[in-house]
Sequence to fold (140 residues):
Amino acid sequence: MDEQNELAKKVVEKMMQDDLFSHWLGIQILEIKEGYSKIKMKVRKEMINGLGIVHGGIAFSMADSAFAFACNNRNNLSVALDTSINFIKPVHVDDELVAEAKEIHNGKSTGLYQISITNQRNHTVALFKGTCFRTNKTLL
Fold:
């Protein structure tokens, strides 16, 4: 299992090198294991919408990054096939968010992942579900 987790970490390191959007979000990797990822970010003022709360696309994008890191880290290039999100609580400037992606199903051609986003008070602010399609191409 350690070799698999080492490969998973190397794949995500490579992904992060080229992922300018995750860099813009300020995403930091906390933990990577095969089929799993945990990331964090701090919300900035330019992420606010016209209602004075964080734009929903920010939480979605963070969850999407966690999803991508989890479903690609076996070195099998996988792309989103279907995603959905539920916004549970508002997110505010200076909130520190953690997204945790857990693999529900790892099939030959698809995978299913659930991503929860919590804030610094450990309140769940969003739940994301993603299905990926496996291309059988490698990242490394």
